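To close the section, here is one more complete example, presented without commentary so you can practise reading it yourself. The ligand is zinc ion.
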Amino acid sequence: MRVLGIETSCDESAVAVYDTGAGLLAHCLHSQIEVHREYGGVVPELASRDHVAKLAPLVKRALAESGGEPVDGVAYTVGPGLAGALLVGAATGRSLAFAWGVPALGVHHLEAHLLAAMLEPDPPDYPFLALLVSGGHTQLVHVARPGEYDVLGESLDDAAGEAFDKTAALLGLPYPGGPSLAALALEGDPSRFRFPRPMTDRPGLDMSFSGLKTFAINTLRNETSTASTRADIARAFEEAVVDTLLIKCRRALLQTGLPRLVVTGGVGANRRLRAAAAIMARDMGVQVSYPRIELCTDNAAMVAYAGSLRLLAGEAHGLDFTVKPRWPLASLSPPASQNRG
Ligand code: KG4
Ligand code: ZN
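Output:
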C-alpha cells in the first residue's frame, strides 16, 4: 500500500510518500523558521497561511519524487497541534483522498513520533520504552505495539523542547531555540555552573523543566552577560535537561524491565542526548534506537507510516473530518485488525 502523508501541526509543512513494500519514497519539507523568526516564536495565524501557500507545491514535489504512481490512501495529522495549522493539512488531505477515490485517515502526531524509528533500516521490536521529547510534550511511554500506549510519566509543566526554546530566548538566541542553544553549549565550560536535576530526588517518572529556565534567568542575573557566560549557561542547562531525562529513562527501564529504548521527537535530535542515551543503554544492556535527525523533528514520513498501519487495517475517516488540537495519546487503540486479533 502506498500512502501520502501530510504534516502541518505546527511550523513545518511536510509531505511524504511511504510504500509498505518499498519503504519511504519521498520526504519533502518546508520549514517556517523565516516566517516566525522576527517574532521569536510561532505565530499561529502566520503558520496557517504559510501552510496554505506551501502545501500544494510540496504535494506535487513529493508525488513526482516518489515516481508519480497513484497512492492508495492519504494520512494527515489531525492533532494535537495548532487548530488552524491542522485544518490546512486535514482539508488538503481529505480533499485529495476524495478526488483520488482513496481512503483518508487523520493521524495522531505523537503516535507518528512514537513510530518514527520504524522507518529506519534496523527498526526496534515491540515492546519498547519511548522517550518522546518534543516542543509540546515530554513523555515516557510504554509502547506495547502500535496503538497501545501507556504514558508512564511526563512533564508536569514545560516540555523539554519548550524549556530549550525559552532558555534560548533569554540567552538572546534566535528561534528555534533548541538547535541554537545546543550549538552555543558546544562552546561552554561544563564545570562553571551546575543546574539542578528537577524531581530526580523523589520517586516516580514525572518531570518538570520550568524551574531550569528560572535557574538560567537567575544565573544570568548574577553574572556579567558575556559571550562565554552565556555559553557556559547553555552548557549547564543542556546537561541538566539531558541528565534529568536519562535519570527518568533509566528508572522507567528498570521499573518495566523493557529491553529497548527509543528516543524520539524534536529534542531527540539533540546530539548530547543521543550520545548520553547510547552510553546509558550500553551500560544497562538495553538496545537503543533513534530516528535519523530529520525524522526526529516534525516530518510527514512518520505520519505516512503511522497512517499506513491503520489504513492497512481498514481504518478510514469520512468526509466530515475534524481536527483535534488536544488529543490524549492514551485514548488511542491499536489499528482495527490487530484489535480484533
Ligand atoms: O517534534 P518537534 O519538531 O515539534 C513538536 O512536535 O513540538 O519538536 C520541536 C522542538 C523545539 O522545541 C525545538 O527547539 C526542539 O524540538 N529541538 C531541539 C533540537 N532540535 C529541535 N532541542 C534541543 N536540541 C536540538 N538539537
Ligand atoms: Zn512533533
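Once you have examined the C-alpha cells, check your reading against these statements. The longest strand covers residues 23-31. Residues 109, 113, 134, 265-266, 298 surround zinc ion (ligand 2) (CB under 6 Å).
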